[in-house]
Design brief:
Helix content: 25-40%
Mean pLDDT: 76
Low-confidence stretches: 1-14, 230-240
CATH architecture of the largest domain: 2-Layer Sandwich
Number of helices: 7
Order of helices and strands: HHHEHHEEEEEEHHE
Length: 240
């Protein structure tokens, strides 16, 4: 599953490796057993030995290379983990440029996003995000960068390579007839493969997902009234 359909915010990288580590180990072990079993019994049971040798060779290759032609044909990738993807649209009664500037100051985000402990702007495009996990005292941090910006119209960012979590976001700002602004927000979190990724993946639970949704809605009251509680109406969202 891709995090976004928008390639500009978080491009999907097609990798030769499409088999995760546990599958590769299992494929290599089973493949080795079948291959040598087939070779050793080639003269006593030719047909079954040939089948074992071919199957073993395939599994061994799958384990060593990390590539599965069947997965590739089906466009599957077991190295990808589940993601929290949130999309929502809402309107605020403030001019577009004011709304844009308020969101563009990323250090403002923790003021209305409860799941963020801090966002430190390191320079014009890089920032350090510290995320709180609801119901725990646990946090994790990662660096992000602005990858696309159209002043007054769009901000797109993503975590840098090697971060303990893959995060990306995009906000589009559109002026509406009454002088207000319509926002289209897309946010995504995905934990990586590996022991660290597994631990973080357990923290990215439905409660965390719900909190992010509420946090996004909180921007309306933040920008209009200086309040952080999520608005009760005029907001639609889709969580994937």
């Amino acid at each position: 599953m891709s995090i976004y359909s928008d390639r500009e915010t978080l491009p999907r990288h097609h990798s030769f490796v499409n088999v995760n580590t546990p599958e590769r180990i299992a494929s290599a072990v089973i493949g080795t057993y079948l291959f040598y079993s087939g070779i050793n019994n080639l003269f006593s049971s030719p047909l079954s030995s040939i089948i074992r040798t071919v199957a073993g060779g395939y599994l061994l290759s799958r384990g060593i290379s990390g590539n599965c032609p069947v997965y590739q044909r089906l466009e599957q990738d077991s190295t990808q983990t589940e993601a929290i993807n949130i999309r929502c649209n809402f309107r605020v009664n403030k001019p577009k440029n004011e709304v844009y500037q308020s969101w563009r100051r990323l250090s403002n985000l923790p003021l209305f996003m409860q799941h963020l402990e801090n966002v430190e702007e390191l320079d014009a495009i890089r920032s350090k995000w510290t995320v709180k996990i609801p119901g725990t005292e646990q946090t994790f941090s990662y660096n992000a960068e602005i990858v696309k910006e159209e002043e007054g119209r769009l901000i797109g960012w993503r975590s840098i390579e090697g971060s303990p979590v893959t995060h990306a976001g995009k906000v589009q700002f559109s002026e509406i007839d009454n002088g207000g602004t319509e926002l289209h927000v897309v946010l995504s979190y995905r934990s990586p493969i590996g022991s660290i990724g597994t631990a973080i993946g357990k923290l990215l639970n439905p409660k965390f997902e719900k909190l992010i949704s509420e946090d996004v809605y909180g921007f309306k009251n933040f920008i209009e009234n200086g309040q952080t509680a999520p608005p009760a109406q005029n907001v639609t969202a889709t969580v994937h």
